[in-house]
TrEMBL record:
It holds the Pfam family adh_short. The keyword Metal-binding does not apply. PANTHER family: PKSB, RETINOL DEHYDROGENASE 10. The lineage of its organism: Bacteria, Bacillati, Bacillota, Clostridia, Eubacteriales. Belongs to the short-chain dehydrogenases/reductases (SDR) family. Keywords: Oxidoreductase. It comes from the Bacteria. This is SDR family NAD(P)-dependent oxidoreductase.
Length: 284
């Protein structure tokens, strides 16, 4: 996808973080916008891009519900008649040992980080195929989908799934000679609002104050770690420009932190060499 002006971009999780930055970059490029988010923070992003001159439609919606994503697709077609760029951006993080994390949290993170992508592809790809025009889909994953670390089983599981899902869908579209291109965005730590994602929980995934996990040292340590790595992460201001450049160049894997490449490479090498995962690498 090399032309952006007057094209239509759909972005989930657009209320803050990457989503808001993607919306602003799309507006700079003259795109029409359809923005979705679970919170009314969405209005702030919408007001910003309107001031930049963009046409914008918004929908407060939950990517864990297919009917909400389908409504987003219907809004897009009703208002603009087509869709050219889909950024499945909405995401959350859950940390802690796998056996301690409540099943409610597993359901929430899978619903958002995995089913959010599935729902987006299911709702929008048929529209794009019918259009038969150059389109692009960006699925936001994480460098956590290319490597693994301790006490982040839920997050790594969903992000590895996001990478594998995007790769497989991309192969299928290639086999059809489709005009739809795909990218999977795998950033490291960036100064987003991801560490405060608990405030975006739908009611059915709400923290149960009676569950002892939320008073545990594991939960508290996870929150502290998340706040630290996000606050000390890469500034967010240049991220959207890099992603849109990758879209223009039809780059599939979009990475932001070269320092993780040796770790990713070591994991692949160990698999090929038949070596077991070794915790001692985290003590170096």
């Amino acid at each position: 996808m090399r032309e952006f002006k007057n094209k239509v971009a759909v972005i989930t999780g657009a209320g803050n973080g990457f989503g808001a930055e993607f919306a602003k970059e799309a507006a700079r490029k003259g795109m029409k916008l359809v923005l979705g988010d679970i919170d009314a923070d969405l209005k702030r992003t919408a007001d910003t891009v309107k001031e930049m001159g963009a046409e914008v439609e918004t929908l407060v919606m939950d990517v864990t519900k297919y009917e909400d994503v389908e409504n987003l697709s219907k809004l897009t077609i009703d208002k603009f008649g087509s869709v050219d760029l889909l950024i499945n951006n909405a995401g959350v993080v859950v940390s802690g040992p796998a056996w301690e994390v409540p099943l409610r949290d597993w359901d929430w993170i899978f619903g958002t980080n995995v089913y959010g992508l599935i729902h987006g592809v299911k709702a929008f790809v048929p529209i794009m195929l019918k259009q038969d025009t150059p389109c692009h889909i960006v699925n936001v994953a994480s460098v956590a989908g290319l490597l693994t670390t301790p006490s982040m089983a839920a997050y790594h599981t969903t992000k590895h799934a996001a990478v594998a899902f995007t790769e497989s869908v991309n192969y299928s579209l290639q086999a059809m000679n489709s005009k739809i291109k795909m990218s999977v965005f795998c950033p490291g730590f960036v100064q987003t609002d991801l560490d405060n994602c608990d405030r975006h929980r739908p009611e059915r995934f709400a923290i149960d104050p009676k569950d002892p996990y939320y008073e545990s040292e594991s939960y508290k340590a996870g929150l502290e770690r998340a706040h630290f790595v996000i606050k000390t992460g890469m500034p967010i201001h240049s991220i959207a420009m890099s992603v849109f450049t990758a879209i223009e160049e039809e780059q599939f894997y979009i990475l932001t932190h070269p320092q993780y490449l040796p770790v990713i490479g070591l994991r692949v090498k160990n698999i090929l060499d038949g070596k077991n995962p070794d915790y001692s690498i985290f003590n170096k």
